Amino acid sequence: MSASHSSPFDAVARDWLTLAERRKAHLIELFETGRWTHYFTEAELLVELRAAKVACDRFAKVAGLETPEANPSA
């Protein structure tokens, strides 16, 4: 689907993208503050961060938005 073609599901995908980005930001905040040690092992945190990044990328693609990985010149 091209970015110029709008789908009725784009708004839903953008909402889910917002939630995925919030999850990723929360995990990053846990890492930066060191609070992650209360909830995760290091391996578990890395798995969660990777999953959050994948979710952000997928929802951005579904919503017809470009991700930095999709556009290497950015």
Question: Could you explain the architecture of this structure?
Answer:
Helix content is 61%, strand content 0%. It is mainly α and 74 residues long. The chain has one domain (10-62). The protein is elongated, with a radius of gyration of 15 Å. The mean pLDDT is 85.
Structure, briefly:
The chain is built from two helices and no strands.
Q: Rg to the nearest angstrom? A: 15 Å
How far apart, in Å, are the first and last alpha carbons?
21 Å
Largest sheet: none
The total count of helices amounts to 2
Q: Give the beta-strand count.
A: 0
Can you tell me the overall shape? elongated
The total domain count is 1
Q: Compute the average pLDDT.
A: 85
Unreliable runs, pLDDT <50, ≥5 residues?
Answer: none
Q: Which range does the strand content fall in?
A: under 5%
What is the share of helical residues? Answer: 55-70%
Question: Which features would summarize this protein structure in a list?
Answer:
61% helix; mainly alpha; single chain; elongated; 74 residues
Fold blueprint:
Blueprint: H1 10-33, H2 42-62
